[in-house]
Amino acid sequence: MEVVAYHDLEDRPGFQMALQVAGGRSYLYLAHWWHPGWTIMDVTEASKPKLVKFVPDPGGKPGTSTPKIQVANGIMITTMQQKPEGIFGYPPDTPFDEGFYVWDVKDPENPKLLGHWKTGLTGTHRSYYDGGRYVHLSASCPGFYGNIYRVVDIYDPTHPIEVGRWWMPEQWLDGGGPVPKGWLGVHGPPYPKGDKVYISYAGIGMVILDIADITRPKFLGKLQINPPFGAFAPSCHTVIPFSQRPLAIVTSEGSRVAFASKERLRGIVPGMNLFGIADISDVTNPVLIAIFPYPEIPEGFAYKNFSEIEGVGPFGFGVHNVHEPHYHPDLEDRNDRIYCCYFSAGVRVYDVSDPYVPREIAYYLPPDPKKWTWNRVGADPFPGPLMSTTEDIVVDKRGYIYIDTMQQGLYILRCTV
């Protein structure tokens, strides 16, 4: 891997990213977890990224988090949710906005707000949008436990309308069953492929639905991964079906209790993450066929492995985000290569031409940050060392790899393999 460029993002670390080419120029859009709003970067000349502007959250409420973003066909979807108290330290009665905004970004440097859809509860965590009519969501919903799958029609972007939803039976609080314990719900994003959608369900695993009738999603099958994987974080964080092969990437998230104090962290053994490949040729019976190798340890690294690092920001060692092609004309879509961000193990590139034997072929560990760029309100500091913690990854059609980190800015890389 080679470093093409770095930008400090004016000390506003990015979270999820999206990209579009407009007017012959390449633009990268970054959502922010800690600083409500969105950053627009001109990355036409990848070696000299230019920060065009920061667009603050128009609602301006202190309890709003803006973690996720999608851009396709001149439309931008930005999600909003209540800031979790355990992460940010804000009390739960802090005012917040929720749901998602629809923006016109045909003028790529000047987003125009078109519409606002609300969940009616705590908000939307992740979304999938590929430029069509529908936005697929991991979202809260009144009367339900955890996030469920919701589909919103933006044919009229000024008046988004929910047209479909699906949930696990035990999530329906008015259904008479026992209230679930632990983390149960859609993490996302729900990822459609043809007339099916592949959903990462925390507390369960991969769930596959038939969406031939978008208003009535129907259960087809599932791959149970919790237990044994993902004991202390979303046990299924991401599911990505390959565009040209009957396979899917399936991941859990983290391996320690996130957001815990040092006192509570003691005695917890880091669990094994799932970062695997599933055969989905039979959607009623998906099968796990491979698990990715443990990330290579750099020579001279300060620790003997990544699992035993105390805390690591708050998140611990583990897979976070994987490059998602989304059938987007400006993004790379290789069915023989996977790009992944680990929290403490940096960016990893894998050859999956043989899906039974995924091979690590390149990696990059950003340098450790020198300072905190955000603080929790009225809460204890996060445990563990101030280490580089990678968040999201996007790969464009030119082969440039964009990564952002929890405490630092934007890195632009190239894989020379």
Topology, element by element:
Layout: E1 2-7, E2 17-22, E3 25-31, E4 37-42, E5 50-56, E6 64-65, E7 69-72, E8 75-82, H1 85-88, E9 99-104, E10 112-117, E11 124-128, E12 134-139, E13 148-153, E14 161-166, E15 185-186, E16 191-193, E17 196-202, E18 205-210, E19 218-224, E20 238-241, E21 247-251, H2 262-265, E22 275-279, E23 287-291, E24 319-322, E25 337-342, E26 347-351, E27 359-364, E28 390-395, E29 400-405, E30 410-414
Provide an overview of this structure:
The longest helix has 4 residues. The strands form 7 sheets. Strands 6, 7, 8, 9 and 10 form a 5-stranded antiparallel beta sheet that branches. Strands 15, 16, 17, 18 and 19 form a 5-stranded antiparallel beta sheet that branches. This protein has a single domain, classed as YVTN repeat-like/Quinoprotein amine dehydrogenase (Methylamine Dehydrogenase, Chain H). It is globular, with a radius of gyration of 20 Å. By secondary structure, the chain is an all-beta fold. A hairpin with a 4-residue loop joins strand 28 and strand 29. It contains 2 helices and 30 strands.
Short description:
The chain has helices at residues 85-88, 262-265, and strands spanning 2-7, 17-22, 25-31, 37-42, 50-56, 64-65, 69-72, 75-82, 99-104, 112-117, 124-128, 134-139, 148-153, 161-166, 185-186, 191-193, 196-202, 205-210, 218-224, 238-241, 247-251, 275-279, 287-291, 319-322, 337-342, 347-351, 359-364, 390-395, 400-405, 410-414. With 417 residues, the chain is mainly β. The strands form seven sheets. Strands 6, 7, 8, 9 and 10 form a five-stranded antiparallel beta sheet that branches. Strands 15, 16, 17, 18 and 19 form a five-stranded antiparallel beta sheet that branches.
